[in-house]
Amino acid sequence: MGAGAVVVRKGCPMPLAVAPKGSSPVSTGVDLREDDEGGVVFLWGMASWCWQPGDVVGRRLAAVQLVGTSASKPGEVAAAFGVDQATLWRWRRDYATGGVEALATERRGPRGPSKLTEEKVAEIRRLRAEGRSRDAIAAEAGVSAGSVSAVLAGGSRPGPGERASTAGPDGHLVALARPEPRDQERQAARRGELAEAAPRITSGASLPRAGALVILPALAATGLVECFEATYGRAKAAFYGLRSLVLTVVFAALVAEPRAEGLTRIDPVDLGRLLGLDRAPEVKTLRRRMAALAATARSAQLIQSLAARHVAGHGEAMGVLYVDGHVRAYHGKARVAKAHLARMRLSMPAELDTWVADHNGDGLLVWSAPPGASLVGELRRVAAEVRALVGPERRPTIAFDRGGWSPQLFAELVAAGFDILTYRKGLKPLEPRRAFRSHAFVDPAGRRHEYLLADRPVRISYKHRGRPRYFACRQITRLDPTTGHQTQVLTTRTDPDPAPVAHAMFSRWRQENFFRYMRARYGLDALDAYATAADDPGRLVPNPARRAADQRVRDARVALEAAEAAEGRAALGGGRDKAATAEMRAAFAAARDHLTALEAAARSIPAKVPLGQVHPDAARLDSERKRIHDAIRMATYNAESALARLLAPHYARADDEARSLLREIFASPADMELAGDELHVRITALSAPRRTRALATLCAELTATETTYPGTELRVVYSVKDA
Description:
By secondary structure, the chain is of the alpha+beta class. The protein has 23 helices and 25 strands. Strand 13, helix 15 (407-415) and strand 14 (419-423) form a beta-alpha-beta unit. The chain is globular, with a radius of gyration of 35 Å.
C-alpha cells in the first residue's frame, strides 16, 4: 500500500497518513521534506506544495497556506519551518495585504548573478587582480557593480538560502536591505548537524545602528570573544554560537539596552545584521544559553583570562590600581543580607562586589565579596590576585579609600611588594602654611595640573599581637588655596616629586565614574538572573537575642541616670527626712543591682551565632551568571574607553563629550558593502561638522588596525558616508 492509498471505513473513503520517505511530520496527515533539491509538503501522502532551492517565496507561501487551510496549527507550522510564530504571523499578514509578491524579501527586477557564467567570474577576478575598481570592472565585464561585489566576496552563484547581492538593478545598495532567512541552517542546528551559524554579511544602505560596528577593533584588543571560546570551549550544536551570544550583549549595550529584556525593544533584524545573521536571538534564548554557561562555574576563569589580556596590552596602566567595593541593591523577596548603600545613605538588602581598575579607570577584576566583608580583608585578596597577574618583579601601587585603613595591612602589602596610596584617617594637626610648595604635573594627555603640596615622613602606631608597632610612610598634604582645606594622603612611594603621587590619588574619581557610567549605560546593577542560592549557614552574624539584651541594659541605664539626676535636684531643694532618704537609697541600690544583673545576663548571651540558627532561609543572589554579564560589560566599557582616548587628540571637547559622541556614532545608520576581502562600513554624517570630522579621523585610525570581522577573513574598512 503506497502513499496516497485509501481505506474504506464505515462506507466513507479516508486517506491513510503514510509519511513519504525522508519527510518529517508537521501535524496529523501533513509531512515536510526539504533537501538540496528543494522542498515538498505532503498532505495525506500527496504532494500539495513544492518549491525549488532558494525559492523563499514558494516556501513561505506553503507555510501560510498550511495555516490558512487549517491543515496545521500555527505553532506546528512554525516549528516545522524553523521560524517563530511571530515570523509566521508576519508572513500571513503580508500575504493577506499584498498577495504572493508581499512574501518576497527583495524587490523584483533583473538579477546580476544570472549573467555570472564561469567565464564571466574568471574575467571579473582577473580584472580585480589587475587593480581595477569595482565600477570599472562592472563596466568592462558588462555586469552590475553588485554582481562584481558578489563575485569578489567569494561566490558566483547563490547557494540555498543565500543572497548573492543586495544591490539593485542599477548596482546601488538597497536601502534597509533585509537579510535572507536562514531557516534551513536553523533546522540543521536543531538536528545537531550545525555547530554554529557562520556570519554572512548583508550589504545594504542606511542600515540602522550599523555605526556600532566601530567597536570591533577596540573589542578585538580586549580578546573578549577569544577568552570566551577558550574558557567555555565549543558549545553544543546551536544556531547561535558563543560569538553570536557575546556580540549580542555587546551591541545591545552600545545601543542603550544592556539588560536581556532590552532585546524586546530592538528590531531583531537590525541587530542580526550586525551579527552577520538574519536576526538576533530572543530573550529566552539568550537567558537559556547564559544559564548553561553559568552551570559550568567558569566565570572566575573568564575574568582572569580577560584581565591577563588587559595587562598584556596595557602594561603602562598597571602602575596604579584602584580598589573599591560596589553595592548592588536588591528589591526582591528573598532574604538577602543587608549592606550600606552609600549613594542612598541607608542599609538595605544588597550584594557587595569588589572591583579593581587600572590607572585609566578601566575595569580589570571583579568578584563577589562575602556579606559583611571589609575592605581591609578584600585588599588581601586583591594583593594575591594582582600579583598572579603582573608577576613577581613589578611593584604596583594599590590606591583605596579610608575603608581600607589598617596600619598592619599596610605593612603586609609593603612586605608583599606593593606600594600603598590612601587618605589618612582621623583628625591630625594641620600643616603650617609655610610648609606648602607649588608643584605641577602634566598627564599623558598633555593636561597640566597644579597643586600646593607639603611633603614629610610620618610614623603611624598600631598594635600587633598586643605589642606596639610603627609603620613608617610618607604624608603628602594638599592645600586648597580657596578654602584652606587640607587633604592628607599617605603613601610608601618614593618619587622625588610628590605631584605624580598626588595626581594618582586625586584621579581615583575615575573608578567612581566607572561605576556611575556602568550603572547608567551598561546595567551594572541589573539582576541578570533571578536564581538564588542558600547562604552559608555557618556564617556568624549578630545574635538578635544579644541585641535585645543590650537594648534592655541601655534602657535600664538611661532610666537609672534620669532617676539619679532627679534625686540630685530634689536633694538640693532639701526638706526630706532620714526615712525617705533611706528608702530612696534602697531603691537606687536595687536599681543598680538590677542593672548589674541585666549586664551579666547580656554578657552570657553570645554576640554572634551561626546564620542557620537565625535565618535558615537566608539566600545569596546567583553570582555566576552575573559575573558572565559583568565580564562582557567590562570589556565593552574598556573598548569604549579606548575609542574615547583615540578621539581625544582630534576633538576639542573630548574630556566632556567623547562618550556622548561615541553613543551618537553607535546609534547612527551606516552602509555595509562587501568588496573582495573587505567589508566597507560607511557611517552617516553626524549632527555637527566638528563631530563628523572627529568621526572621519577615528575611522582612519580604526581602518589602520586591519581588524577582521569576527568569524570571517573580511577586513573592516571604516569611512564617513558622502564625506
